[in-house]
Each structure stands twice: as C-alpha cells, then as structure tokens.
Amino acid sequence: MSYSNSSAQYAVHKFELKPGISLTCIETDKFKSGCLTINMLTQLRQETAALNALLPRVLRRGSSKLQDMQSISAALDDLYGVRVEPIVRKKGEVHSLGFYADFVDDCYIHEDESILENSIDIVGEILTSPYMDNDFLSQDYTESEKANLIDDIRAVINDKQGYATNRLLEEMCNDEAFGISKLGTEEEARSITYQTLTTHYHDVINNSRIEIIYCGSAEPNRVVAAFKSTFSSLSARPDAVVPKTSIIYSPISDTVRRFEEKLDVSQGKLVIGFRMGDTMKDPDFTTLVLLNAIYGGSITSKLFLNVREKLSLCYYASSMIDKFKGIMLVSSGVEFSNFEVAFDEILSQLSNVQRGEISDWEFTSAKRSIVTSAKSALDRPGGIEELYFDSAISEFPYDPLDLSNMVQDVTLENVIAAASGIKIDSVYLLSGFEDIADGGETIETN
Asked: N or C: which end of the chain has fewer CB within 10 A?
C-alpha cells in the first residue's frame, strides 16, 4: 500500500513494507544530507520505561558483525561519517525507541558509491542482529549503558526549567501514563539485568509497530527496496497498531491541585497545567497551534508581551500544547515574591483569549510566527522527520506541508471555541529555601 502527496520542493510517499511496518518517504533534493529514523512504538508504562530507554543504547554498542563501538565507528567513517544515534521519544502516551541516522546524500558522492543502502544495512544490523553472548545481550554493554542512563536520569534536575515541567506532569498525571518519564526512574534502571533486557528486546522487535521515516533525494522505490532487503527477517505484525493515548477532558479535582518543592535555587519556577476540554474530542491541529501562538507560544503572544515584557512579572513565560494528550502547560521563571501575582496574570491572559479579546495585530502576528516556524522546521532534514513522525502516530493525521496554508483559514471564532473549554488542573512551584514572598502566601504541597 502506498500514498503520495507533493509540493514544489517535497514529494511525500507512504508505504506499508509489511503489516505493522510502515515507511514515510519524503523525497527532496533540497539538502546535502539525508536522514532516517527507525521507531518501534510501545505503550508508555512504568515497568518498561527504563527498559525502553536503555535498549537502543545497548544495541548501538555492537552487532553480530561489528561487535564493538570501534568497529561500528570505523564502518560509519568509511561512509563519509554517517552518524547513528539511539533515540527515545515520548509522544502522548506512546513511547518510541529506535535510531536516528544522518548521512551525506548520494547525489553528492561518486556514482559507484551508495551511502543510503549501506547506512540502512548498518542500522538494520544493529537493530535486528545485535551482539549476543550465549544468546543474551552483552552483560558488559548493559552494565555500562545502565550507568550512563542513571547519570542522565540524575542530570534532569540540572535543567531547572525542564525539571519543573516534568515534576508538574508527574504530579498532575500521577494516575496516568503521561506522568511517566521517557527515561524511567533510577530505581527501575538499576533493576535491569542483561537477561531482562534481552527478553524485552525480543518482545519489542517482534511485536511492536515500526514507523520508518526517510528524508532525502533517493527515489521512493529505491528506499523501499533497501528497507525490505535489510528487514526481510522481521515478521509481519498485523495486530500491531499505534498505542493509544488516554485523554482526560476536564480537571480530575473540583479544586486546583497545588504542589510545591524547595531546592537551592535563586529563581522560582511556576508551571501550570490545564486540560483542553471537549475540543480534544475532535481536535483541529492547526487551530490548536494558532491558539498556542496567540496565548504563549510566540514572541508576539499575550504571555510574552504582557506578563514578561509589560508587567515584568517573569523572566520568561511561555505555553505549549501537547496535541496528543490534550494538556496545555504554561512555564515561567519567577521571583519568589511574584508567584501569586504572576499566577493571577497568567490566568487573566487566558481569560482574555477565551473571551476573544485578541487584536487583529495579535491574530495576524501569531499566524506569521507559525508560518516562520514551519518554514524553519522544513529547512533541515531532522525537522522534517520530526513533523512527519508526529503526523504518522497521530490519531488525527495531518500533512505538515499544508500547515502554512491551513493556518490562514483558521478564524477567530475557531480559536475562541478551542479555548473555551480550557480549565486549570494543577500548579507546581519550585522555590528556594528562603520564605516565599517574604511573608506572602505559602502554597502547601498536597
């Protein structure tokens, strides 16, 4: 089965290589390099999160033919420096693991050389024929990469903005899979053995849905032939589908849930989580993108221009909408003494959007920012890959190439309707060890 769409610079083709194994091929001669990703889709679960995060790291250490990183690196260097890296993504409650590769496009090398096929062969071998010791993944590789994964889990706290966002989601979605970190927990990582990782590998490689994305100048039939040859050993999986994300339309509590944590920080972090409401029952992706740009997703947004610039209540203030889960987050850096007034103003600006108090300039500027962002993403192979991966796993597919055009058709009424059901669910405050607001209200941890 195949599907195609085209524009001036891109031709998009979709194929089913085998039941449960799909390929999106974005054909373009715009770049000097190409890229591909191989993504195994699993349901985000606490018991497998760390296993998923660890597995591609261990697989990348060696294959049956190229048994260590030195051998793999030498083979990649011979292909003009192909880069192959493990990749783990959390999209809604889909936990994706696999590999990202980028390489010089074949049209820029000698005619008798084939970077594409050789790159696919190496990535395929790493994935389907990993280095084994007595039918198990290497114990040494497993223990070494476990230590690296644990270091990465611990390092999350060093980025206080990202840490605060993760903590809000953990608390807000503590009974939902969405609250689980894509890296898992340190405790879960420590419990992994090379035996349990091997069992997990066989389960994932044999049963998960696989989405492959390619971006480059190669003709689609050539890309299809290369992947079919490399993945000939993989069995069909007709029952493998994109895992579902559970959407909760309204806050789960009648009162706003508030959580506070104290660390040795000089700048507070205020993160607010919202449920998107009934608009997620039949969401229009383009309207959500525009709504976010108007509220807090651009430098012409209400949060940026009012809360940050005009009122100087935050060092930064921005919003994002997870289109898979139906959650909107506002993230801000705030002086401890400004927590409450910043919180009130952030909600006030949302109310303005819901009432349609959006100027023509704000509306037009938000559309322009979306067009600029879309063009920026389409200016690099990795950006295109991300757009089409999101589209491939979305319950409501869309064509990223059409985003710039589709946003022009979104009306103010569309935005107001999408914003009308947004309700606050949870608030997370990260403060220092000194008293909040020098005598102001302290928000207790639930």
From this structure: N
